[in-house]
Amino acid sequence: MTGKTTPPAKKPAPAAAKKKAAPTPKEEAAPKEEAAPKEEAAPKKEAAPVTEEPPTPEHPPEQPPAPTDESAPVPTEAGAEVTPVPAEGSPAVPAEPPAPEPKPEKPKEEPPSCPLSLAVEEVSENSFTLTWKAPEQTGRAGLDGYVVEICKDGSSDWKAVNQEPFLSTRYTVPNLTSGDKIHVRVVAVSASGASVPATLEQPVLIREILQLPKIRMPRHLRETYIRRVGDAVNIMIPFQGKPQPEVSWTKGGQPLDTNRINIRNTARDTIFYIRQAQRGDSGKYKLTVQINGAEDKATLDIQVVEPPGPPQNLKLVDVWGFNVALEWTPPVDNGNSEIKGYRVQKSDKKSGKWFTVLERCTRTSCTISDLIIGNTYSFRVFSENICGLSDSAAVASGVASIEKTKTTYQPEKVPQRDMMEPPKFTQPLTDRTTTRGYSTHLFCSVRGFPQPKIIWLKNQMEIREDPKYIALIDQGVCSLEIRKPGPFDGGVYTCKAVNPLGEASVDCRLDVKGEI
């Protein structure tokens, strides 16, 4: 016994193979390959190679080899199987398959967050209806639905009302007993788990609600309600609901101070009263009207204001010409209201009276113009809010003196121009024909400096003081009127202009015709 196995090609074929015709090598290899997976699924004794050593089996039955691709026999070219050859003198040990690599664990998804705004919508004598909003976080897989659980008051045994999760955010819990107090909670469920339950703060009393609670907030109270310090606050807010609802007031989540605020409730309204309002009474008051878990809420915003303080750090920045520049800073106390503007006033030293120069100046600086020369001015500024002007004003520490400026008038030097000019006719006389007995005029125009002397001539004879002729000159226009001329008035008329620089003349002919 050498411990060696005989080559599988020389060993006799199995009994099942003898019954069939000997296949070719290629046909023989194909069935062997198909048999390999069967040996992987369930190894058989036929698949093990036959050795000449019967005492020691190569594959004990209690430890079958793992079904892996590496443990399958490898076919040879002749279609026979080759088994691993163990060393001499040692028993045959089957080869162990490699262990599979561990797969990385996927991170567990967080469950959804708690449902929001759980409230009672309606209560009857044997059921009630809940509403809520979806949670902020639902996870990647999304919600499978919600589960509603109830528990009687005084017990800790929570029971699910619905058997399967549902996706609606409204649910009616049926089959309840009138008069019971029921605690309720809602859980959001997904593939990664259940959320923290959303729970009603108060148990639901099972009894019929004839009318749901509803607050009828007046229109003027839907905005900020503004009152002055010391004024009374008297507000009535109506509501509805049957049976009579429970009314509660809170401020900042805390009950009201009954020493300052009086609350009186009736079946139809609630009255909010403060005798003398203070700035500390400002804020948002929450009104809640509730019937067995069903409720309605409203917010009343009250603002108590007073006049603001005066501006700060008023100073004169600059004085130039008839102008003054002022600057200041906002008041320390705005009276619990927005500053709407500033009022700027001036006062001159002579009269001592204050006059407003700017109203509701929205900036903290300004320029005042049109001041009178020779006056000295003081300035003050009031701040203004919704209540009005501040009780006191900020007064500038300095004064502005508008001084007279010394100016000397110097007329413009105009060069002297020689206006001397000898006479010159710009418009000559023209020949005329007139009718006997009808007055006529002769015209011409002349210029010259000094103004020339005008002499009229008839047939080279000077016309002197003759009532038949009237000679005039106006703005250089010379005229000669011949009154009711006769046949002897015809002839040549000459106009001569004479001044120290020379003389000039023009003439014309006048014809006088008889009557037609």
UniProtKB/TrEMBL annotation:
Keywords: Cell adhesion, Immunoglobulin domain, Muscle protein, Repeat, Thick filament
Ranges for domain Fibronectin type-III: 114-209, 310-411
Domain of life: Eukaryota
Keyword Isomerase listed: no
Any Gene Ontology biological process: cell adhesion
Pfam family, one: I-set
Record-linked InterPro entries: FN3_dom, FN3_sf, Ig-like_dom, Ig-like_dom_sf, Ig-like_fold, Ig_I-set, Ig_sub, Ig_sub2
Start and end residues of each Ig-like domain: 213-301, 423-507
CDD domains cross-referenced by the UniProt entry: FN3, Ig_Titin_like
Annotated region (Disordered), positions in chain: 1-115, 408-431
Chain's role: Binds to myosin; probably involved in interaction with thick myofilaments in the A-band.
Family: Belongs to the immunoglobulin superfamily. MyBP family.
Protein name: Myosin-binding protein H
Biological source species: Copsychus sechellarum
